[in-house]
Amino acid sequence: MFELLRRHPLSLVLVLLLHGVLFAALLLNVSLVSPTSTRAAVEIAVQEDIEVIDAVAVDAETFDRIEHQREVAEQEQVAEQLRAEEERRRAEEQARREEERRQAEEQRRREEQERARQQALEDAEQARREAEEARRQAREEAEAERERIRQEREAAEQARREAEEAREREAAERREREEAERQAQEEAERREREAAERREREEAERRAEQERELEEQRRREAMEREQERMAEAQARREAAERQAQADRELNEWRAQVQSVVQRRWRQPSGLDASDRAIVLVRVNETGRIINFDIESCSGGTAFCDSVRQTMDRLSSLPRPPDADAVRGGVSIRFEPD
Question: What single string gives the DSSP state of each residue in 147-177?
């Protein structure tokens, strides 16, 4: 009762004011009675005392009943407001829980995206390091090849200088021999006595000439062998360059194939970042797909089905630069974006 009065002070004030008005009306009724009718009023009052009292009692009961009904109505209204407030509070609590669940789901999605982004960065960094290592090895091999060529050129230059010196010596010897022959011709008659010695000297010179010719032939053969070795080195270098070009073209083709398949892949919803699939595809010299095998698939049924459906839709791939190089097939990765 006191709690009800505390919650509804305005109703209490209205009830008190109503009682005050009724009491004032009673007092006003008593004061308005005239002196001439005092005795009659007294007689009437004496005669109808009980009835007046009964009337007043009836009015008070009616008023209390009305007041009780009004209080009951107010209590029901208050209860209805409390129920509405409780329902509103429950709805707000439900909305708050839904918002917290949504925020948790959004946070999980952002974390998954961040993990995927970090994985992509790590893969890109790994690829960059591997490419840098390949370039470093290529530079070292090219440097070693240049050093070998330089040494071969120096050896060839040394052989050329030695051959040039040999030719100069041969020319000097030839001039000396001609001078000796001229002197010998001039002094032929004087040196008839020395004919035998001259013949022996000429024989010695002939043998020396043969030795020189043999030496010259050996030098020519050595130069020919050196030229053949340099030609073989040039051929090996050109073959290595052709192989490197073929490797670059094959790597570019593999990247192009991966890009084509990735664009044709219709990724289903709800994929996990750890889903992976490797497909081995065999093509002919024109790029037409002969067959394919799904070597591994670590995702769910929807993921694996999407991989198979993508490969079923494909009939051909870009033309390979070298059919023999891809005869064993090319591996294609399927990973969620």
Answer: HHHHHHHHHHHHHHHHHHHHHHHHHHHHHHH
